Inverse folding.
DNA sequence: CAGCATCCCCCAAGATACTG
DNA sequence: CAGTATCTTGGGGGATGCTG
């Protein structure tokens, strides 16, 4: 992920690499944020409407949820289905890439559970 | 991770759960950010000085790096070693919990590589 | 109900400079 | 070299109101 130089490649290949690298970085910047993670975790393998999602994520503003959903949709991680009824109904679900990322988020959740007591005591030690 | 109610527990157990839950959330808020991830990935299983780290992460300001390192140290994910020489020398390395999280970040990097072309085309489709 | 636009405020984060 | 403090600004993010 870092901007390391790989030798034995043509200039074009180097360029491709650094382009892929900067794209990877962009993706990181988009996706590696707490709301995205919480949304992905909340969606799981289910289907939720905007308001359900908002409620289940908890503590997220209308605007932030919209922004993050757009971002996730743009990156092809969530699929948005609009039912042209009145009142409107919009459903969100994870795509296959989204499910892939969900696996990562799951491991992070597992990690949190595993180390939560360590972290808590580390914090107490640090805060004194 | 969500704030789901679990029945069959005493009030105290419920309280413990929600306390653990809010702590987990705090940890998420701290750690699920792009700089933290990039720092963890950059550190890997090595040992780096402040300035080396800054250079290798790339694009991070002095201040942001300091803040994130303090945060990671507070949560017990990185260990900070100060050599009382002049000029000072400070080394950072991941702790065991930090290595655990690094595994997660690694899977995210793998995920990025796997889906980078899908994401790129999803973006192009979306942006038109 | 979901989304967008507008307004507005405050804090995140950069720049700079000083200490040990 | 690493860290802290101060100052300043842009934009993140909340609140509100309007539309389909």
């Amino acid at each position: 992920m870092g901007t390391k130089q790989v030798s034995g490649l043509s200039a074009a290949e180097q360029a491709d690499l650094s382009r892929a690298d900067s794209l990877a970085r962009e993706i990181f910047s988009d996706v590696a944020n707490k709301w995205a993670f919480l949304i992905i975790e909340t969606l799981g393998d289910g289907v939720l409407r905007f308001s359900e999602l908002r409620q289940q994520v908890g503590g997220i503003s209308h605007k932030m949820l919209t922004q993050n959903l757009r971002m996730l949709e743009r990156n092809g991680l969530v699929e948005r289905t609009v039912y042209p009824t009145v009142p409107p109904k919009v459903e969100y679900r994870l795509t296959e890439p989204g499910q892939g990322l969900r696996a990562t988020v799951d491991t992070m959740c597992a990690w949190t559970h595993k180390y939560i007591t360590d972290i808590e005591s580390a914090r107490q030690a640090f805060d004194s």
Summary: Residues 34-127 of chain B form a domain with the Arc Repressor Mutant, subunit A fold (CATH 1.10.10.10). The first strand of chain B starts at residue 48 and ends at 49. Chain B has one domain: 34-127. Chain B touches chain A through 47 residues (CB under 8 Å).
